[in-house]
């Protein structure tokens, strides 16, 4: 079908909109937001209900206002008890209730994050959403965001969590139903002239950004020491053990391969990670550790330092080049085997019967922790990013088995020092093992914020891109008056969002189909975008009595058969 034949404009009431749009195409957190749904061969419109076979965008959010006494909850989705704070009643015999972990000075473990366990299986439909109660008037809010009596110094924020399920897709953020109305006359001349201008949106300062850790706060950058701890086992490369992802060719920094393997995607993702840190002049040291199993007759696992911690990111990039050959060198049965001896066969279709066996995640993590202790900076946050596609087990030799969860717990608890954030990436391996390892320095394991579960290895570069974005100051899309931000969100298809923030894409000036704008992968991974606002103390009384209301929403279209330009809108 031609693209122009797939465009329908649908006007829906608030409840019909909320009932239908949580499942497909457009997910709107707003009342009656005018939408243009871009239909393709997997979507249909029947009996005022939008349904989808393979494109599913789910949205949750937390909104707060601060009227001078700290943030108070306004609205959230889901919100099982209607108190304005994001919450969900767990489906278990204990009747456990989970709430958002909003910043709390009396709770040292509070990190401000929205509920991280929400996913494609647990987010309720938007038909159950409630826009909350206006904290000034006490009346039900007609739009998602509304200001009826804003005073200088007041502020607020809303963070949306986006989950694109099933197929990959492009996403735009939109605004609609903007109503900015003038209030009381403040000057005799205004009364005489009959003027009553709406000044509130122009007076409010606003910031739109990617809230990478979904904690409702824009995070600046600080010094960080990072170890990349990478699985160099044979299943990352050799087709014999599931290392070949597809027969599609791949190019990694000028090196072309006729097929795509897991280690190719790791190289692409990690080098993109390094490129982004360089481009952002990040205050980082980065090092690389590898881990494998052991060869026949060996009693020690094959792990080691591929690149020590260094501020020379070009050296790290070089160390991460040609990982096929380096992995092949490590798993070669010729002992001693190192990444640099060139004694391995990097052909993924070669006979790999004699390669090393086992996957020593724990020992690799210990090597990384030792490097952080030896060469880390006292003032820097410590971070270890661990990627594996397999179970951790002993192999054929006699080395002592160390449970990965225990090694990770020691790293988080600074036993030995330093205390380290442990991020884990599971690529169709042992999800339970890698999730148990994940968590913040000083915290417990099993933290979903620090765990990335990848069903499709093609998502590896995107995950590294998102982790890179969490290493520097969170990317600001636009910082301007609220009026100008809403104008950008309401213009055309809205503001095109980037599924991989490590690519250098400008949402306001670059074309929506720019190669650096990537689709959001359809695996349900949580991505957050936030809008904050504040009315400056020096604003004049021209805003007295002004009101402002608006809705926010998200439009998505499948990456398949589309290039990111979005639908052609009528002139």
TrEMBL record:
InterPro entries: Signal_pept_SipW-depend-type, TAT_signal, VWF_A, vWFA_dom_sf. It comes from the Archaea. Signal peptide: none annotated. PROSITE patterns: TAT, VWFA. Residues 225-467 form the VWFA domain. This is von Willebrand factor type A. It comes from Halorubrum lacusprofundi (strain ATCC 49239 / DSM 5036 / JCM 8891 / ACAM 34).
